[in-house]
Amino acid sequence: MTQFLHRLPSWYRPGEVTAVIPVHLPNLANGMYHRAMISVAAQSHAVDQVSVATDQDHRGAAATRDIALSGITTEWSAFLDSDDEWYPHHVEALLDTAKTTGADVIYPWFDVPKGFDPFPQYEGQPFNEEVIRTTQNYVPITVLAKTELVHQVGGFAANVRGSGTNPCDDWGMWLACLDAGAKFVHHNGRTWRWNWHKGNTSGSGENW
Fold first, then answer.
1. Which residues pair with 51 in a beta bridge?
2. d(CA 22, CA 75)
3. Distances, alpha carbon 143 to alpha carbons 4, 42, 86, 191, in Å
4. Dihedral through CA 204, CA 133, CA 61, CA 3, nearest 10?
5. pLDDT at 208 over 80
């Protein structure tokens, strides 16, 4: 196992946050992307940058997320899919948890207005590495993560488990982060809205 070292290169900007948003093209037309961006703009702790990439070649969320990640130099990357929304306290709450725990990846919980929570047993519980490694991925993509860590392990597409269209395309990423020695911490609070709909993986399994 390689150890992830907390030594930021001189070109990283400590304490700053970039919102990382991969966009599924239909979400541009149906208003979901606009709704997501409004939630980013409404943060009580403003993000320092927003990096958006659109999937024009049907590469999927993992590859598109990596494009949005390229070139980011803020200490933190805050992930948001273009059909979901942050609550106004999302970034502030996760940064506070990062400061108090020294975590590298902080994941909060969520509301599902038109669906259901598939992992209710893990809400409010300490991070369980054994479950992630052996059973299932219950960490949502909407996390705050050290940018250096994400770059170090090669991003999302290089770590996808199974096919490139795997709807759980972040699972391998979390395993790679754990292998690199990253500390995961659960923020016990609902800070975002997971919007289920016909066109995403949670709603139909067809698209992200």
1. 20
2. 19
3. 18, 18, 11, 10
4. 170
5. no
Q: What are phi and psi of 96, to 5 degrees?
A: -60, -40
Q: How far is CA 152 from CA 76, 88, 104, 119, in A?
A: 13, 30, 13, 29
Phi, psi values for residue 161, rounded to 5°? -85, 125
Q: Are 119 and 138 in contact (CB under 8 A)?
A: yes
CA end-to-end distance (rounded Å), the chain: 32
CA separation for the pair 42, 53 (Å, rounded): 21
**Each residue of 61-88: pLDDT tens digit?**
999 999 999 989 999 999 999 999 999 9
- Rounded to whole angstroms, the Cα distance separating 65 from 62 reads 5
pLDDT band per the 50, 70, 90 thresholds, residue 168: confident
Taken in order of first residue, the domains within the chain and their CATH numbers are 13-193 (3.90.550.10)
pTM of the model: 0.89
